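Appendix B. Chain record.
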Amino acid sequence: MKAVVPFKPINPKSRLAKVLSEEEREEFAKFMLIDVLKLLKSLDLEVRVVTTSPIDVPIGVEVVEDPRSLDDCINSELREVPKAVVMSDLPLLNRETLKRFFETEGDVVIAPGRKGGTNMLLVRKEGFRVSYHYCSFLKHVNIAKSLGLSFAVFDSFYASVDVDNEEDLLELMIHGEGKSSREYLEKIGFRVEFEKIPKLTRGKR
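Structure tokens predicted for this chain:
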């Protein structure tokens, strides 16, 4: 099985700009990518990172630079199936979740994000084309239906948490033990205050 991981190394995660500097966001995004790649490699998958700008990845995977839009890039990748598309900002993924995802039956398997996006996609039949952004989960369901392809919705909390805002950072700090991305957040001063409702704080580094 082959898997492609899209990645934007320059000025990523702009919605975190209130709590992380641009340099910190770039470092954090890279650590999340590493967390995802380690898991994919642990399943002996053939992994390709498709990046909008040059990057140095300290893991033995193929890296391809492609400045096109996300849709154009992934649709080119899907000319060859079966293939999985796994987003780079899913640091809570674990081996068991990924194994269950790849074992799920269907011409198309869709793992939705909590905000209506598509965090992981597994395409086994030719003809499927992606349309990311603006509630892509529902769009991908409708695309599969329109093509007469069988599809399955993959239900997993760990696959649903794509880190985009401060609330997502809190989930990573609570559930991300052992992850490089959480270790980075701790290194730059983030902590969880265990009040009635847990709260993310940042102290001195």
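Further analysis of this model is presented in Appendix C.
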